[in-house]
Amino acid sequence: MDHLVVSTARRHPEAVALETPGELPLTYRALVEEVERAARFVASAVGTVPARIGLVGAKCARTYVAYLAVLRLGATVVPISGAAPADRIRAIATAAGLSLVLTDRVGGAVAELTAAEDPTVLEVAALGGVDDLPSVDPVPTEPTAYILFTSGSTGRPKGVPVTHAAALAFVEHNIARYGTGPGDRMTQVFDLAFDVSVYDMFVAWGSGATLVAPGPMDLVHPARWVNELSITHWASVPSVVSAAVGLRELEPGCMPSLRLSLFLGEQLTLEQALAWQRATPHGRVENAYGPTELTVFVSAYRLDEDVESWPETSNRTVPIGRVYDHLDSVVVADGREADEGELCVRGPQRFAGYLDGRDDAGRFLAGADGRFTPVAGRSPSAQDWYRTGDLVRRGPDGVLVHLGRLDAQVKIRGYRVELAEIEGALRRHPAVTDAMVLAVPGRVGSLELVAFYLGEPTEARELRASLARRLPTYMVPTRFVHKGAFPLTGNGKVDRRRLPDS
């Protein structure tokens, strides 16, 4: 993947590659030079470069340089959210077999990695004066470009390895689809531990566009940020729209520089899309869809400029479009192809299987000619279909509408979350005997988490602090409700639907 940046630097050496808050912009020539210096620094510091290297950092030049330096070294990069607590960093490091973690600064949860079994932490902030280090010897490149960890129903993070080939298939398709290039200015609002960052970085750097990272408050006031930095290409979760509408900062025509706005990670409602389109008079709005296992996203639906021609869907969400032509897809219900059911996909963007093979169980289907059965007793093959767990409806024109999840996973601020993982973490509190977590509509149009628990009544701030030591911020519920008992269905199971009213 790093060769895309090198190739662009040869074609457009003086074009601006990266702009980060409070730092001087980096041209493509400068970015490649910094990456080479960082790679030399890391190689000289560790001797033998490990096959996988963790990365924890904020949206600053050093972090992006370190990301590319890992790839330059032929290793697999394992991005970890800078907001993750030390326990989660340890869990990911253990699952990925990390012996080395790079960081833009030693502090916060990273500073707590001091136990003997913890990986070595290497600060890459001080790269000045290392030009005399020996060059990096060519090493065999790991076929896996990156590993991202999603929430797991087992209560442990679930690793998703994505190969260079799968990432390149995705990036090259989208560079051609959107025609990005020098002069375009693309946002990078997603955490590097979230897969859409791959779209942001490599569609920009593979085409000669400028990647623009936001400051801490820029997403709170998106129109101001877009106008101040002349953003042309936007990508974010839809909840940003609702928040801006709530602040009355999304006036018609307020973002004239935007030419493309891409939303993904959550269902995009027609009301959200309309508010954003009216604010971007010279742009177009697209709704994209895809799980991490299929390399960022696999479909997109472009809304027409004429609002009157927009589709009417049963759940008032924008369709997710058709799956890309270079991928195969099928909708399955009860083991047969159907027009409404679970979306299953295979092709060059599909991952080969989870880092822990036990997580593959039940996630793939084998079959063709309209009949499908779960893969069991073997590893998935290239001909098997990945089960997305998403319920879709396919229209007569082949366009898909996302209807919801088939399991207990939900999307919170664009992150995929297993409610069972939160429930398991909450049960570890000594005052809690049982817990259930629901995702309910929030005040700004996105989902929020509400925890219902049994045991001793406990201050919400104590429960929140307990979870914050084990889970990322986006997985910590906003509300905690004590119950004397959970409502049950006729067969004795907890009735989640009745929890809020019981």
From TrEMBL:
GO terms for molecular function: phosphopantetheine binding. Residues 421-493 form the AMP-binding enzyme C-terminal domain. GO terms for biological process: amino acid activation for nonribosomal peptide biosynthetic process; secondary metabolite biosynthetic process. It holds the Pfam family AMP-binding_C. One of its GO terms (cellular component) is cytoplasm. NCBIfam families: AA-adenyl-dom (TIGR01733). This is D-alanine--poly(Phosphoribitol) ligase. It comes from Actinophytocola xanthii.
